[in-house]
Amino acid sequence: MRQALATFTFIMCLAFLAGPIAASPATRVQDEKVAAASPGSSKPETIDGIAVRIESDIIMDSEVEELAAYQKLVDGKSKPRADLIRELIDQWIVRGEAQAAQYPQPSAADVDRAYSELQKQSGAAADFKNHCAEARIGEAAVRRILAQQIYLSRFLDFRFRPAAQVDPQQIEKFYDRELVPKLKKEGQKVPPLADVEPQIREVLVQREIDALSKQWLDDTRSGLTIDIIPQGAGQ
Fold this sequence. Notes:
Layout: H1 2-5, H2 8-18, E1 50-54, E2 57-60, H3 61-75, H4 81-100, H5 108-120, H6 125-135, H7 139-160, H8 168-185, H9 193-222, E3 226-228
Antiparallel strand pairs: 1-2, 1-3
């Protein structure tokens, strides 16, 4: 029985029911504002515009474009610009809190593992390289975003897990109303509740962390000075 519970399909079932974990991919914060055209060049350089002014900082158009490219690589498509900007603002908030708390960055090994897992989803290394080319994103950018994703999601877990309480009634409700119907629909064997309780608890804890993180971000965002620049106007 326990061997069956460890199968990939069962873990994927729990992951599906858990929903997305807080913390979407993050990008770097740039230090300078806008790149100028090269003097004497017949071809002006691409100018990086400002997408958002947030407090005394900025988020650049290139960061929005890079996140869009990463989403296209991972999900096959990117979200609308307004949603991308919202994600980057939230990442800016979390990153500031994590840095203030001196939360440790992920190790190079952590990033290597995440990159390898992402690469495996495409099968052969050549296929992944082609997908990156199609999404117009390079390996360095993918690794940078993965590093930030790990950093921010771990910090949110660190901050909100102590407050994420789950009781036995919630576990039973999840088992009866979500897990059992899904497994039956897929023709899989339904394990006893006692065998899957730890996995269900973690799913529910992650959901609670998501909810607490969202509320905190909403509250924090509302107190910030944020100016979203229309596309093309910040150049």
